[in-house]
Amino acid sequence: MFASGSSDRKVILFDTKTAGKIKELVDEKNGHKGTVISLFWVSEDQLLTASLDKTCKLWDVKTSTVVATMANKKEKLEVEDMQNACGTFGKELIFSITLNGRINLWKFADLSKDAAEINVPCRVVEGTESGITALCYNQKSGCLISGDSDGIVSVWKDQFPKSCRTHKGAIVDLKEGINGSTYAAGMYKTLFEIDESGNVKFSLALEASPLSIAPSKSDPSTLFVLLDNGTLLRITSGAIKQTHKVSQDSTCIDVNEDGSEVYVGDKKGVVHVCA
Question: Which of 60, 75, 215, 263 could form a disulfide with 223 if both were Cys (CB 3.0 to 4.6 A apart)?
Fold first, then answer.
């Protein structure tokens, strides 16, 4: 099962085998009031979403209800407080990033009541001077990895990050591979692999700018990359092994557990399955 969010505020669940729609997550009272811009599976039964309505929500997938709503309820919320991405650090913390680059952290332990509203994060990290545009948590190293609008990737081991410039424009995607490396995609025709110390381990020139990355979940030497010209690449051991043309409206990709299917989402809200 995989999930997608869109500008119509809907979260839709799909069957990974048939690509058929399973159901929509609809909570009229506690659901999102703005575009759903990021999704993260916490477990098989719980899904985390971030929205331009300036909130993150934790969903019970079985009941299609919101378990908790998280926001930084300041005296006056601005456009910069819109939530841009979300995820978890293990089983202890939930994180989100806002358009101004702040990283908000909430404790799972505070989500003790159904539809609980958590209005104050347990910690706020100011991030980098430029707005954070991509974020991931490297489970092997235990580090937070951020990418900003200036093309800089930062590895946060403590309060002071180790940073390196990879792209000439904004970082649009960061993903952890099962080998522990982090892959960076940005507005430049190069794919980068970053080690846990924040150093460039490998780079590969591409025919167009990468939009989205999906490392294989079964083969540490393989990852899939979507380019902004509508090309889907399979890269193995640092070399392009296969190309496949998809719609130029494509925006993001993911891959199933054994790597036999790649899911491609587009601007029209359609998910395509490439086998």
Answer: 215
Whether the Cβ atoms of residue 138 and residue 176 lie closer than 8 Å to each other: yes
Q: What pLDDT digit, counting tens, does each position of 1-57 carry?
A: 889 998 898 899 998 888 899 999 989 889 999 999 999 999 989 999 999 999 999
The torsion angles phi and psi of 83, rounded to 5 degrees, stand at -80, 130
Instruction: Tell if the pTM clears 0.85, that is, is over it.
Output: no
Residue 140 sits at φ, ψ, to 5 deg, of -70, -45
d(CA 186, CA 192): 9
Residues in contact with 128: Cβ distance below 8 Å, sequence separation at least 6, in sequence order: 101, 146, 148, 152, 154, 161, 163
**Is the Cβ–Cβ distance between 266 and 249 less than 8 Å?**
yes
H or E element, residue 107: strand 103-107
Q: Which two tokens stand for residue 95?
A: 């994180």
Say which residues have a Cβ less than 8 Å from residue 76's Cβ, sequence separation at least 6: none
- Our measurement of the distance from residue 79's CA atom to the centroid of its chain's CA atoms, rounded to an integer in Å, reads 20
> DSSP code of 131?
P
